[in-house]
Fold this sequence. Notes:
mainly beta; eight-stranded antiparallel beta sheet; seven-stranded antiparallel beta sheet
Amino acid sequence: MSHVFCQQVKIDQLEAIKIEHPLFSATLLLQGAQLIEFTPTNTENNLLWLSDTVEYKQGKPLRGGIPICWPWFGNLNQNPATIQDQMQDQMQNRIKSQLQDISSVSAHGFARSQPWAIKRIHEDCHFVEVTLILSSNSATKELWPFDFELEATFKFSKTLKLTLTTINTDNKPFCISQALHSYLPTADINRSYIHNAHNATYIDALDDWKEKKQIGKIGFSEETDRLYFFDSRHYSLILATPNQSLLINNENSQSAVIWNPWSEKSKRLSQFSSQDFHHMLCIETANVGSDIKKIDAGEQAEISVEFVLSF
Length: 311
């Protein structure tokens, strides 16, 4: 790699692109196309939260940054039937091989643990744009029966924008659920609020998947795991924390996942200390639940998120 601002480095077992630009610094892992750092030069703080106990190991997603959840979100057996039904042949083969049932399939899909390739890098005095690509291969065919190309394009400047493009290169349609699983930092979870979700419908995964309506701002005082749904394919949320305000613009998404594990679940999470929940939360740009995407053969679909920092 021969570029002015970008350098390919290795962090323990993982290849990464390290970017040092007058407007920002960033660190992007090739495994999972997982961005783990974006620090604008007008602040000394990483815009993303990353656990102090992360392990840079092959095949092991890191706790933090922006993992890409694809081609299903969460546990496969909690996805809509159209997502699960695509997997029946694979699951029958697993059962015949004396493997476990659908509940044993890896959560959040496989894209976040696969090695991605660099497709292109564009450098400019005003921004840097990096596109990574993951294509179907024999390993992915063992996990999901379709041909595809997946592109993750990161545009770094004073702001950060991530666009995930799914291209159906198969001869039949497929359905996906997905999320840009953004971990965001806060000085104090008890004084952190998400605005612009008033009147939105959400499903509470911790209360028997009941449908509810959000009244006012979203706050945190206990474990939170909710799927929010919006009327528009373009919506914005504002995260207000004690030290900063973050505008989050979402495109081609009508759903978002809001998550904090709180104290008890924290004890069961990998690469996560028992006190980390005080200083992080997840706002995940998504296509989940009724918002899943069907992509016809030869067609493509995008989802994107943009972060704009203010104080």
